[in-house]
Design goal:
By secondary structure, the chain is of the alpha+beta class. It is about 35% helix and about 25% strand. The radius of gyration is 16 Å and the shape is globular.
């Protein structure tokens, strides 16, 4: 079950790896701590929105992109009690689009590669800030080939990842040469 302690654990591990990002992530840490201390949400509006998403990379070093209506990107969803971890939530975000397939975390990259922080989407009515935990998984493209015809998805180069920080960390996790 994904609960507050799990999110705090992932957040703390990430902040210890990326000290320069601590200031922007502290509001999430403080908000969760406040929820736990009070026992419920003490804010009428303004609680952070936590989402998780995966960058799935194949054997050719390509990332699986999805058409979101606003452009090509990576799906994300909020965690549910059934997910068990934010990493599983991230993979579920992809499998909600593709159906089940085999994917595995990259050794040494089991924690989030990036935690994006930006304004929450309008449909997250009670949230003002979105924290997106991004994980990376490997798969073989042949495992998704049958489903690709029905999906608004395609394999694209990692160099197409728009976020320089995410692109660099995906490269580093895969030990790929920079293009």
């Amino acid at each position: 079950m994904v609960n507050s302690s799990h999110i705090i654990r992932e957040l703390t591990r990430y902040m210890s790896d990326y000290l320069s990002e601590v200031d922007v992530l502290l509001p999430l840490f403080d908000s969760i701590k406040e929820h736990v201390q009070v026992g419920h949400c003490p804010h009428q509006y303004g609680c952070p929105s936590v989402k998780a998403g995966a960058v799935v990379v194949d054997e050719q070093g390509r990332a699986l992109y999805f058409w979101t209506g606003a452009g090509w990107g990576f799906p994300e969803v909020p965690p549910t009690g059934e997910d068990g971890s934010l990493g599983r939530t991230a993979l579920r975000a992809v499998m909600d689009q593709t159906g089940p397939f085999e994917a595995w975390p990259i050794e040494g990259a089991e924690s989030p590669l990036v935690i994006d922080v930006d304004c929450a989407a309008p449909h997250d009515w009670s949230a003002t800030v979105r924290f997106g935990f991004r994980y990376v998984y490997r798969t073989e493209s042949a495992l998704l080939t049958p489903a690709m015809d029905q999906l608004s998805a395609e394999w694209r180069p990692i160099s197409d990842i728009q976020s320089p920080r995410l692109r660099e960390r995906v490269h580093d996790s895969l030990w790929l040469p920079r293009s």
